[in-house]
Amino acid sequence: MKKFLPIVMLLMTGAAFAPAKADLVHRLTTSTQLSVDAASTHSTRIGSTYSVSGNNIKVASENDHFAKLTAGTATAAATLDVGAYDMNTSGSAFSFTESWTQGDAVNAIGAGVDVTSGVVADMPAYGEVTTFSGGVAGTLAGTITSAGVMTITAGGAGTDATGQFVSELTIN
After folding, report:
1. If we measure between CA atoms, which residue out of 29, 28, 30, 32 comes closest to residue 163?
2. What is the rounded distance in angstroms from the CA atom of residue 90 to the CA atom of residue 67?
3. Terminal CA-CA length for the chain
4. Is 163 among the domain residues?
5. Rounded distance, CA 116 to CA 130, Å?
6. 117: domain range?
7. Which helix H or strand E contains 7, and what residues bound it?
């Protein structure tokens, strides 16, 4: 038994020197993102409207009328046919309110907006128009070398440049 004791002790010490097992992941990521805003125009064509209200007012004769809209065409908005008014009872109080909005003509498809080098040169002549000039890349640039060195150069108005370096270490 005494002969086996040193061998058992040697086996026990050998287990203490066994290599440890660990999963180790190291990830390096470098990226650049460059963007230039696009030019855009949003427009809404408005229609023709007419409204009238009042009291102690009448049309001037049986052949007259209050103002009215006349039908438009495929490319033209409705127009106003003005009326002829008169007081109903002379010398009495009266009120009269009239409102007229001329609608937009219909632009041909593709007409009304020109964009050159990101700049909106002209826009449609509609009642409601929102226009954004696009960015100009100019000197906008981004590079990454094989050594991971990142270089970003600013561009003109309406541009964005983003550089990112990520080091991730995972130990399981």
Report:
1. 32
2. 21
3. 43
4. yes
5. 18
6. 47-129
7. helix 4-16
> Has residue 71 been placed in a domain?
yes
Please answer whether residues 56 and 87 qualify as being in contact, where contact means their C-beta atoms are separated by less than 8 angstroms. Answer: yes
Domain end, chosen from 129, 144, 162, is at 129
15, amino acid identity: A
Q: Does the residue 32 lie in any domain?
A: yes
Is 139 found in the same domain as 74?
Answer: no
What six digits make up the tokens of 12? 């026990």
pTM: 0.48
Report if residue 7 sits inside a domain.
Answer: no
Tokens of residue 16, six digits: 């203490």
The residues that bridge with 138 in the sheet, in sequence order, are: none
Using one digit for the tens of pLDDT, what is the confidence trace for 77-96? 888 988 888 888 888 898 98
